[in-house]
């Protein structure tokens, strides 16, 4: 896996983490949640000989997809999002677009399902459907690299909000318990926002120290 390129970049005013993942050998790359600083992400890719061919959205909230339109226009990248979230891209209201000074995302080009393997060069990113924060929220797991992009499902020391109209604490609880805490303990997690005491963590650490999830583990609930 020496040809993997992986970079976490905090973008915009809302502490969103975008990710640039690529394969140096093939030159293929994907931008995950390119919420802002699109030119910077493109420049970083070009610096390393990468071409952004895909935009991967962990979910459809405006603060994560507000760079989709610009990224697609400038790179021709195809937008991929979970099938339960694709329609929502076209339903983000003017109120939210105005609040975030954002453009509406183009429609999805690729719809993802739980268990799909999304190739980026030689990497295979497994789609983990983790509803709760939104109905179509996903995490992206690359087993050989020991990396999981957890979006707004699991943060460092916290979890995604469930007070929105499409959110459910019960679903989020189940998603974290059955899709994330079962991953190897040394899996490094990379969340969707820079909200915690550090930008990354591990599944093993969160099992024990995250106050929202450590009860799942200690109670033997999986």
Give an overview of the whole structure:
It contains 7 helices and 14 strands. The protein is α/β, with parallel strands linked by helices. It has one domain (4-218): Ribonuclease Z/Hydroxyacylglutathione hydrolase-like (Metallo-beta-lactamase, Chain A), CATH 3.60.15.10. The longest helix has 12 residues, at 169-180.
Briefly characterize the structure:
The chain has 222 residues and is α/β, with parallel strands linked by helices. The chain has a single domain, classed as 4-Layer Sandwich (Metallo-beta-lactamase, Chain A), CATH 3.60.15.10.
Highlighted features:
alpha/beta; globular; 222 residues; six-stranded mixed sheet; Metallo-beta-lactamase, Chain A; disordered C terminus
Task: Give the SSE map.
Layout (H helix, E strand, L loop, with lengths): L3 E8 L4 E8 L4 E5 L5 H10 L3 E6 L5 H4 L2 H8 L2 E5 L11 H6 L10 E3 L4 E4 L2 E7 L8 E5 L4 E5 L2 E2 L2 E2 L9 H12 L7 E4 L9 E2 H7 L4 H5 L4
Can you give the mean pLDDT?
91
Instruction: From the alpha carbons, calculate the radius of gyration and give it in angstroms.
Output: 16 Å
CATH class: Alpha Beta
How would a textbook summarize the main sheet?
A: 6 strands, mixed
Strand proportion, as a percent range, falls in: 25-35%
